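Exercise 7b. Backbone tokens:
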């Protein structure tokens, strides 16, 4: 689970031209940029027949529920494949990020590696031929049937790394994330308000909360990126999902300066100007804001699913969560994503066993084990939801969005510099230092410079 969804492009290997050798079964001609891409009928799925293997796995599943789930899955994998010894090396997300580029370009690479799916990471590694194309494995193991398209698309790139969300598969994730609306049922009852079912009702609730002397929406935006988790769901009320996907993936064909995007930016600016976010949201840190919400400040908090367990520990059954109302194209759409995908380096020594491992830890049975250990599985989410509590709401919301609506990309995925551009621009918009047109122009300049040159 992540709170910050972008990374510095400078930490990646872009521009170094580090290329992997072409492997048997690759559709690419031998030479520049070629990476393993075995076809389904070339995939070996009888792992027991491979003999004794040591499988090296690098992950960042170090937090409580994450680590518990991986350890449980490792035990089950060992029972199924006693000939495979898993050598697990776990480290923090930041530490793994710092080592990934050098590891992928070196001679001693892991067999399985978690790779952040942002452009500056997975996209760059794909372009440099450093990751295995998993499309054939997906066909052999049935991953396309197991995963919802809007989830699987977050792990796809064209072979040149230019197009995000389409092309070949380069990773597979275990867990999900979704941004939605938190509220206190007791507070709504005290204000004689109901949980909104449409965006018009959201806007009315914000106005009614302010009239009652309450801060309508809790937001701590000192870190700049939290506003993207508010704007993303809001944008879906004004802009069709496919346009947001194109913008968020940094692919060509969309425009930030359209009337519908201007309307979304105008609404965010109005919330800022009216005090809906409080007196100084840009001066309040993210990790100071949500604890204030648990203490009763603010009527709504628009944010990510990862906040649920910590806030529930304070608020108990009073804390509720809902997916945002239906968006501009008649379906629910909101910002979300997956945990960091598991990939196979191009130079992995044991790719067949690596694919079997990835298949095992993302199987239907694995989803149940993840849920049992406190994580939110990316598949079977509603089915495996707790019987009550905020995680029941969160699981059901993620399931509805990912299977029936559109799981929109984090907007900071768009370009290597978009995190900084969007963070600063939305902060200025909320603070009144720019208007909707100025914000749209700044966002469009960054997006167009990247998408038109790719």
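Sequence design result:
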């Amino acid at each position: 689970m992540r709170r910050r969804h972008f990374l510095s492009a400078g930490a990646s290997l872009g521009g170094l031209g580090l290329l992997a050798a072409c492997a048997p079964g690759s559709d690419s001609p031998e030479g520049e940029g070629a990476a393993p891409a075995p076809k389904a009928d070339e995939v070996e799925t009888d792992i027991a027949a491979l003999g004794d293997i040591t499988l090296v796995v690098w992950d960042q599943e170090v937090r409580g529920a994450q680590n518990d789930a991986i350890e449980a899955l490792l035990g089950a994998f060992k029972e199924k494949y006693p000939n495979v010894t898993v050598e697990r090396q776990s480290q923090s997300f930041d530490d793994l990020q710092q080592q990934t580029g050098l590891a992928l370009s070196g001679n001693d690479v892991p067999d399985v590696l978690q790779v952040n799916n942002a452009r500056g990471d997975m996209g760059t590694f794909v372009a440099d031929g450093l990751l295995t194309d998993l499309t054939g494995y997906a066909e052999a193991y049935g991953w396309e049937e197991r995963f919802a398209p809007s989830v699987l698309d977050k792990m796809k790139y064209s072979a040149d790394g230019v197009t995000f969300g389409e092309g070949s598969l380069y990773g597979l994730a275990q867990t999900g994330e979704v941004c939605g609306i938190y509220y206190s049922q007791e507070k709504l009852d005290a204000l004689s308000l109901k949980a909104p079912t449409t965006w018009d009702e959201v806007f009315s609730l914000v106005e009614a909360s302010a009239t009652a002397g309450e801060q309508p929406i809790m937001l701590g935006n000192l870190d700049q990126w939290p506003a993207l988790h508010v704007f993303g769901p809001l944008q879906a009320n004004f802009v069709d999902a496919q346009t947001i996907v194109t913008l968020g993936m940094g692919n060509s064909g969309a425009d930030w300066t359209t009337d519908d995007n201007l309307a979304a930016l105008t609404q965010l600016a109005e919330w800022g100007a009216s005090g809906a976010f409080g007196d100084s949201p840009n001066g309040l840190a993210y990790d100071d804001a949500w604890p204030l919400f648990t203490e009763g400040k603010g009527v709504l908090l628009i944010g990510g699913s990862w906040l649920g367990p910590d806030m529930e520990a304070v608020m108990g059954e009073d804390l509720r969560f809902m997916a945002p109302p239906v968006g501009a194209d008649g379906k629910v759409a909101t910002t979300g994503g997956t945990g960091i995908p598991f990939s196979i380096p191009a130079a992995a020594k044991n790719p067949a066993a690596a694919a079997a491992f990835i298949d095992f830890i993302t199987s239907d049975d694995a989803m149940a084990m993840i849920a049992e250990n406190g994580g939110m599985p990316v598949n079977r989410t509603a089915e495996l939801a707790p019987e009550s509590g905020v995680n029941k709401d969160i699981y059901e919301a993620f399931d509805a969005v990912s299977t029936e609506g559109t799981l929109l990309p984090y907007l900071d995925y768009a370009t290597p510099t978009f995190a900084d551009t969007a963070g600063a621009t939305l902060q200025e918009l909320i603070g009144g230092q720019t208007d909707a047109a100025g914000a749209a122009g700044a966002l469009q300049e960054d997006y167009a410079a990247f998408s038109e040159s790719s």
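Instructor comment: The chain has a mean pLDDT of 91. Residues 64-80 form the longest helix (17 residues).
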